Amino acid sequence: MRAPHAKANNLRGVAGFTLIEILVVIVIIGVIVSAATLAIGVLGGDREAEDETRRFWAVLRQAREEAELQGIDLAVYVAAGAYEFMRLDQRTNIWVPMQGDALYVPRELPEGLRFRMWLESREIVLKPRLPQRVVPTPEKDEDEPRSQRLVQNSNENPPPQIMVLSSGEIMPFEVQIERDGAEALWRVVAQPDNDLRIERRNQNREWSLIAQTNSPPPDEKDDA
Predict the structure, then answer these.
(1) How many CB atoms lie within 10 A of CB 201?
(2) Mean pLDDT, to the nearest integer, of 174-178?
(3) 111 phi and psi angles, rounded to 5 deg
(4) Who's near 119: CB < 8 A, 6+ residues apart?
(5) 188 — phi, psi (to 5°)?
(6) Helical ranges in 72-175 per DSSP H
(7) Burial code of 166-192, b = ≥16 C-beta within 10 A, e = fewer?
(8) Is this structure's pTM higher than 0.70?
(9) Which pLDDT does position 3 carry in this prediction?
(10) How far is residue 56's CA from residue 157's CA, in Å, rounded to a whole number?
(11) DSSP classification of residue 170
C-alpha cells in the first residue's frame, strides 16, 4: 500500500485551476465576445437601423406616388430622432402636418438611433425633436391681417426639408441612420434622376445598392 503522503502529492498534481487562472479565462472570453459583437455591428447587423431605413424609404415612395396621382405637393420634416409628413395648404400657402392617414403619422426612431441629413452635399443641423406645430384655421386667417398669420419660417413652424412635388419629383437628399454616434450603416438617397435608393455600407466602408425605385440600366441587369 502507498503511504498517505504519496496520495496527497498525487492529488496536488491533479488539482483544478486556481482563482486567478479562472479570472484570466473569463476576461479572455469577454474580450472575444466583445470583438464578435463589434464585428457584427461593422458588417451591418443592426436590424433596427435597417428596418427604420426601409420604412422611411417605403413611405416616402408611397408619398411620391400619391402626390403625383392627386396633384398635390407633399414634404417631409426630419428631426434628429423623428420625422413627419406634410402637405402644402393651398389657401394659406403653408406646410401643415398630414392628418387622418395612419400611413403618414409622425414616427420616432428607437432609442439609440438618430438621423443625419445632407442637402446639396451640405449637412443640415437637425432639431432634436419635432416642433409643436399650430395648424392654421382658414376661417380665422382670412379675418386677420397677413402680418398676424402663422409664419412658416418661425421656430414654432419650421418648413420641411424634403420636397415631394406634384410632378413626382423629389429634391436630391441623403438621410443616414446612425447608432449612438457610430458610423452609419444604412441610408436613403434621392438621386438627381429621381431615383430613390436604399444603400448599405459594406466591409470596405463603401455604399452598396440594396433597393431602388428606378429600373437599373440594361447592362446592370445583365451583370445581376
Answers:
(1) 18
(2) 97
(3) -55, 135
(4) 161, 171, 172, 173
(5) -115, 130
(6) 138-143
(7) eeeebebbbbbbbbeeeebbbbbbbee
(8) yes
(9) 53
(10) 22
(11) B
Instruction: Supply the pLDDT for residue 188.
Output: 98
Percentage of the chain exceeding pLDDT 70: 73
DSSP 3-71: -HHHHHHHHHHT----HHHHHHHHHHHHHHHHHHHHHHHHTT--HHHHHHHHHHHHHHHHHHHHHHHHT
Task: Specify whether the CB–CB gap between 31 and 168 falls below 8 A.
Answer: no
Residue 216 CB partners (closer than 8 Å, separation 6+): 224
Q: Are strands 113-119 and 107-108 parallel, antiparallel or unpaired?
A: unpaired
Instruction: Check if the beta carbon of residue 175 is closer than 8 Å to that of residue 119.
Output: no
| Tens-digit pLDDT profile for residues 192-224 | 999 999 999 999 999 999 999 998 766 655 554
AA letter at 74: L
Neighbouring C-beta atoms of residue 79, cutoff 10 Å: 21
Write out the three cell numbers for 125.
443641423
The set of cell numbers assigned to 67 is 402626390
Instruction: Please give the helix or strand (H or E) that residue 198 lies within, else none.
Output: strand 196-201
CB within 8 A of 19, min separation 6: which ones? Answer: none
